[in-house]
UniProtKB/TrEMBL annotation, chain B:
The keyword Transport applies. It is found in: Cell membrane. This is Branched-chain amino acid ABC transporter permease. Keywords: Amino-acid transport, Cell membrane, Membrane, Transmembrane, Transmembrane helix, Transport. PANTHER family: AMINO ACID ABC TRANSPORTER PERMEASE PROTEIN, BRANCHED-CHAIN AMINO ACID TRANSPORT SYSTEM PERMEASE PROTEIN LIVH. One of its GO terms (molecular function) is transmembrane transporter activity. Its main location: membrane. It comes from Advenella faeciporci. It is a multi-pass membrane protein. The chain crosses the membrane at residues 6-26, 33-50, 56-80, 92-114, 134-159, 188-211, 223-250, 262-280. It holds the Pfam family BPD_transp_2.
Amino acid sequence: MINYILNLLTLATIYSIAAASLNVLVGYAGIFSIAHAIFFGLGAYAGAQFALLIVPDVLLASLIGAVVSGALSLLLALPALRVRGEYFVAAGLGLQMVGITIFSEAHSLTGGHGGLVGIPAATLFGFDVSSPGAFLIVCLVALLLSLAVIQILMRSSFGRALMSIRDNESAAESFGKNVPLLKTLAMVVGCAIVGVAGTLFAFNLAFINVESFTLEQSILMLAMVVIGGVGTLSGPLIGAVFLLILPAILTFIPFIPPTEIGTVQQFIYGSLMAVLMIFKPSGIAGKTGGK
Amino acid sequence: MLFLQLLASGIQTGILYALTAAGFALIFGATKIFHVAHGATFVIAGYAFYECIQLGMWWPWATLVSFVMAILAGILMAVFIYRPIQRSEGSFFTVFVAAFGVSIAVQSLIQYFFGRGSVTVSSSLTMASEVIEGLYLAPILAVAIGVSIVLFGLVVLFLEKKNAGLGLRALSENPGLLEAFGLNAKNLTVLAFVIGSALVVPAAILTSISIGIQPSSGSKVMLISLAATIVGGIGSLKGAALAGLFLGIIENLVITVVDTQWSEAVSFFILFAFIMFRPSGLFGASVKR
C-alpha cells in the first residue's frame, strides 16, 4: 500500500514536470503544442537507451533525454514560426501522428510496439536510487529544479518578451523583439524539460512503449495545464495532481466497475475541460475575471 | 489489379472523408469556429443508426433518427458551448479546448454504453462480387458515390441560390456588416452547424455498414477533416471535399509502396508538408503569417 502511494506520488511528480514544461509553451509563449507527448517520448526513449547501453545514471540519462528532446523540438519550432492559430494546431497534430508511427515502427531504437523492456534500476553518482522512496525524492528534486528554471526564466527579460509575444506578436515585433528566436528558445526550453520528465518516467516504470506517448497523452498533459490554470506556476501542478489522483480515488468508489474507470475518468476530464472553458477559462489557479 | 482494387477502396474511403471534411470546412468557413467536436457528431450519428437498426427499425427511419441526432448535437454545441465562449470573447485556444473536452466526453459516454469494440450494421450492400478478373466491388461503393454527389449538389445549390446560403457566405466575410444589414448572425451560425452536422450522417452510416464504427472513430474523422480542410484551403468547400477524397485515395494507394502501418501517417505527413510550404492549401486564398 505504501509503495502504491509512493508510486502514485512519483507519477504525479513526473507529470507535474511535463505539465509545467508544456505551460512554458502554451501559457507563456502562446505556442499551442498538441504534440507534447512526442517530446516526452523522445526523452523517455533517449534516456532509456542511454541507461540500457551505457550507464543507468539518472542525472546523465536525464541530460541526454533533455538534449535529444530539446534538439528535435526544432521540428515543431519550424511550423511555429511560419503559422499560428489553427494552422499550428494542425501542424502539431501532424507531427504527433507521424511521430507515433515512427515510434512504433523504428524497432531498433524504440522496440516498436513491444517497447523497451528491462530498463536497469536507476543510480545516482553510483548509489542505487531505485527504491520507491528514493526515486520519489529524485523526481521531486527534478520538479523543484524545473520549476526554479521556469520561474527564473519567466521573471527575466526573456520571459517578459515571451509574454509580450503571446499577447500581441506584432506589437512585440515592432518593439524590436526577435520573435522567431524567442519562440524557438521557448520551444527548446519546454521540450528539454519534458525530455527530463520522459527519462524519469522510463526509469520509474522500467518499461516503455508507444502507448504512453499517444495523442491521448498529449491531450492529458494539455488538460492538466488548462484545468490547473494556463500561465501560472502552480496551475500545472494542481492539474497534474488532480488528474492523476482522480482515477486513484475512483477505484475506491464501489459502484463503478473497475474496467470502466478509464472511461469514467475520461468523461470527467473531458467535461471539466469544456465546462471550465465556458465559466472560468483561466483554470483553477488562474485569476478570476481574466479573459 | 491490386492497384485498381486499392483505388476502389481509396475512393470509398475518400468519399467518407470528403463528406465529413466538407461539413467541417463549411462550419469553419462560415463561423470561424474550429469545430473539433465534429468527430463526436460523426460517432453520435453512427451509433444512433446502429441502435435503431438493433431495435428493429426500418432503415429509412433509422437514417432519419441519425440525422436528427447529428443535427441536434451540432445545434447543442453551437448554442451551449461555442456561443457562451464567444460572448466572453474567448480566444481560439479556449474554443479549441472546450470542443476537445466535449469530444472526449462524448467518446467516453459512448464507450461506457456500447463498449470499446467496433459495431457493424450488416447489410447486403457490402457483398462484394468480382466485376472483372481480380477486382471485387460491393454495391456500397455505388451508393456512396451517388449519395455524395447528390448531397454536394444540394449544398452547393443552397449556398449559391438561397438567401440563407448567401447569408452564410456573408457571415464568413464580415459578421459585423451582416448584422448591420439586419441579418441575424446567431441564427446563421446555427444554420451552418445544422448543414455541417447533417453532412457527416451519410458518412457515419456508410462507415457503420462497411468497416464498422467504434467510439474512437470520432477522433480519426476529426483529424482527417481538419487535415483535408487545411490541405484543401481554409474557406473552400470544394477544396476540402477534393482534399478529403485525395487523402482517402492516397492512404490506400500508398500501401503499394510502403507498409500498411504507415498509411495513416502519410496523410499527416502531407498535412505537415502543406502547412510548411503552402499553408493556403490547394484552393484557399493566401494566408497572413
